[in-house]
Specification:
Distance between the termini: 88 Å
Radius of gyration: 25 Å
Shape: globular
CATH architecture of the largest domain: 3-Layer(aba) Sandwich
Order of helices and strands: HEHEHEHEEEEHEEEHEHHEHEEHHH
Number of helices: 12
Strand content: 15-25%
Largest sheet: 5 strands, mixed
Number of domains: 2
């Protein structure tokens, strides 16, 4: 029977061997360039998951970047504000401003918009704006930033007018409604399913592209917002906590999302539903090879 001294010696030998093995593994990883990489989580909607994965693949030699998919935008913003996610890819600058104001958040918007999606006014019942009937029913977004953008869009089209003195107008602030339309506010996730119930509704081109192809073919695009309006309010970019603003990974992710390579992939994959506004702005170009979007002196 092994005495206590031998037992203790055996235990110590096992510990020494385990520590030596761990040290050798670490040295081997460092020697082969496999040192532990920072792990980063990016909050996003399902529509943006592939974009985050594309960026993650390009930066795989430096970071482990994982998209975390949510079903709605407030939770995405909150997770970044609480530090559950390192950053998110969802908000426009107006939406970010409204979130911080409404929820007491202290998120920063990193530099500028990366992509943009023009707002569309679509219908499965009408083929033109003129066909929208008297006393018809239309819909706009129910969140402050998107609703402001869409009411402004409809005002530019001459569909209605609203009180521009109100910072974040609702349908109650409509001051002129020539066709006496009923204007409902609905959640972005409900728009596609609600289409048969409305004469027309506003929707971002990114959400329109995500519709089932058969349903999309039933729709007529009655109007698209101006390029300038899209650049100003229809963008999307990265939000993070102030403490992460100067992290190298934040700059690397931003730069990767503003490359021509990402712009080419984006336009080819989404057929113009997402506009690579980050590439346009950072390269100083005002137009791209694809004729889907021309940027007219943005931010002058």
């Amino acid at each position: 029977m092994m005495n206590k001294g031998r037992k203790m010696t055996a235990v110590l030998l096992v510990l020494v061997m385990a520590l030596s093995l761990a040290a050798c593994q670490k040295e081997g990883q460092e020697a082969s360039g496999e040192a532990e990489k920072p792990e980063l989580t990016v909050g996003c909607l399902a529509r943006d998951e592939d974009s985050v994965k594309w960026i993650a693949e390009k930066l795989a030699d430096k970071y482990v970047i994982t998209p975390r998919v949510y079903s709605e935008t407030v939770s995405i913003m909150q997770a970044a504000a609480d530090g559950e996610d390192d950053l998110n890819y969802i908000a426009s600058i107006p939406y970010w401003e409204n979130y911080n104001s409404s929820y007491g958040g202290d998120l920063i918007f990193y530099k500028d918009h990366v992509t943009a999606s023009p707002a569309l006014f679509i219908s499965q019942k009408c083929k033109s704006l003129e066909e929208i009937p008297q006393n018809g029913i239309i819909a706009v977004a129910n969140d402050n930033a998107s609703r402001l953008r869409e009411l402004r869009f409809l005002q530019e089209l001459g569909v209605l007018e609203y009180d521009e003195n109100v910072e974040y107008p609702t349908v109650l602030d409509i001051t002129s409604n020539p066709k006496n339309l009923t204007v409902n506010e609905i959640d972005a996730r409900s728009r596609v399913g609600a289409l048969p119930d409305y004469d027309a509704l506003s929707i971002a081109s990114s959400n329109f592209w995500m519709m089932d192809a058969g349903e999309r073919e039933k729709c007529a695009i009655l109007a698209q917002e101006s390029d300038q309006a899209c650049a100003d309010a229809g963008g999307q970019g990265f939000c993070c906590l102030k403490e992460n603003e100067n992290e190298p990974w934040m700059e690397d992710i931003w730069k990767t999302a503003c490359t021509k390579e990402f712009a080419d992939w984006l336009l080819e994959t989404y057929e113009g539903a997402f506009i690579p506004i980050g590439y346009y702005l950072q390269s100083g170009q005002v137009e791209y090879e694809k004729p889907t979007f021309e940027v007219p002196d943005i931010y002058e």
